[in-house]
């Protein structure tokens, strides 16, 4: 069931989202070759707790980290650990923060050192696809309008989106209805309404969209092991558009 949030609930989510944005700001300054993904996880948890929130993902469905750290070909749900970032890597960090029972959720892909132009293009297109999806957000449009905008932009650049992994509603729970796929048809799916809060998150493979879960039961990679990128914002739908909650005020 899709829940519509009150202005007070959106204020709480906005605070959680602001803290998520602060985490990404810190990571942009900190991430460099030689860091472990565990160190990144520690930085994220420190920023989240220093700002009066708790990590949304820690223990969620049994996940062991405070954030997801997905390096290179890992699309989502990478577990923080001893992996050391190398010059030329990319890492997607998916961050959730909870403030007074309400969540904010945002993922961003960071470049580690000197990254080649082909990989930079993947990241650029994925981030731009997020904003192509956001252009479709207003009351009266449908979830499928967001999905199609993302899919068509990604595929026009020669990349692909997995079918199995989607954006989602968000609020008191990290994952709520509705699903927000990255592939779909326009004018289909639930109607967007004022007060809906959703996380839009293009996940993009450089190669084909078929993927599988790793032996750790968390990380997801393309079957062809192509590179992947991931960008996400939590938004609230307003009377005439949307407000991004996961950015600094």
Structure description:
With 249 residues, the protein is of the alpha+beta class. It contains 4 helices and 14 strands. Strands 7-6-8-13-14 form a 5-stranded antiparallel beta sheet. Strands 1, 2, 4 and 5 form a 4-stranded antiparallel beta sheet that branches. Strands 3-11-10 form a 3-stranded antiparallel beta sheet, with no helix packed on it. A hairpin with a 4-residue loop joins strand 13 and strand 14. The two termini are 30 Å apart. 51% of the residues are buried.
Q: How many E-type strands? A: 14
Q: Please state how the strands of the largest beta sheet are arranged side by side.
A: 7-6-8-13-14
| Count, helices | 4
**Biggest β-sheet strands, sense, barrel:** 5 strands, antiparallel
Q: State the secondary-structure class.
A: alpha+beta
Give the helix level as a range of percent. 25-40%
- N to C succession of SSEs: HHEEEEEHHEEEEEEEEE
Mean pLDDT metric: 97
The outline comes out as globular
Termini separation comes to: 30 Å
**Low confidence ranges:** none
Rounded to an integer in angstroms, the radius of gyration calculated over CA atoms is 17 Å
Summarize the topology:
Elements: H1 7-30, H2 37-50, E1 54-55, E2 68-71, E3 74-76, E4 90-99, E5 102-111, H3 117-134, H4 143-156, E6 167-169, E7 176-180, E8 197-200, E9 203-205, E10 211-213, E11 220-222, E12 228-230, E13 233-237, E14 242-244
Antiparallel strand pairs: 1-4, 2-4, 3-11, 4-5, 6-7, 6-8, 8-13, 9-12, 10-11, 13-14
